[in-house]
Amino acid sequence: MAHLRFSFGTMGSGKSTVALQIHHNLANRQLYGLLLTTLDREGHQVTSRLGVAAPAIEVTPDLDLFALARDNWPIHYMICDEVQFYTPAQCEELSQVVDDLEVDVYAFGLLTDFRGKLFDGTKRMLELADEHSALQVEARCWCGARATHNARVVNGAVVYEGDTVVVGDTADSAQPLFGDSVRYELLCRNHFRRGELGT
């Protein structure tokens, strides 16, 4: 019986690394599957900050994931990275892949956005998934506590308003010549609420 599994965590918790490992392990057993992502910092591939990557299908808002699975039939699995950015309808299509095609789906994503609120895709995955679990690789806040929030830092200050989707990274970068410097910082709930970035 196929399952829809949703694994979530903060940035730096190893979501993409685990997705790539599962894809590698299943492919090595002569199983055929699809690797999908959206808005990956490196384009049409799943990348890990550990330096591993694999080509992936880019999920755009108009891509029908059930039709994609059906058109690539027979497949044994689908691995979906960055599902927080998938539409609720696409999350439902993944559940249809499981139920109607009996294909295992492994989904990975962030739980909350920079405001500490559920992404639409995440919310729907939590509602639909047969299994959902937090990744066990715990990222840490600057204070040493478990990181629970992905804070958006604009020009050196934590912000709580703005567009939900703004792609950035966790690394500090030089101030751009034009526009804002945007990055993300992993914080515990306490320092997220206070907007404190440490020293």
UniProtKB/TrEMBL annotation:
Stored InterPro entries: P-loop_NTPase, Thymidine_kinase
Keyword entries, A-Z: ATP-binding, DNA synthesis, Kinase, Nucleotide-binding, Transferase
Molecular functions per Gene Ontology: ATP binding; thymidine kinase activity
Catalysed reactions, as listed in the record: thymidine + ATP = dTMP + ADP + H(+)
SUPFAM superfamilies (alphabetical): Glucocorticoid receptor-like (DNA-binding domain), P-loop containing nucleoside triphosphate hydrolases
Entry binding sites for substrate: 184
Keyword Methyltransferase: no
Active site, per annotation: 82
Enzyme class label: transferase
GO cellular component: cytosol
EC number: 2.7.1.21
Family classification: Belongs to the thymidine kinase family.
Protein name per UniProt: Thymidine kinase
Originating species: Ilumatobacter coccineus (strain NBRC 103263 / KCTC 29153 / YM16-304)
Gene: tdk
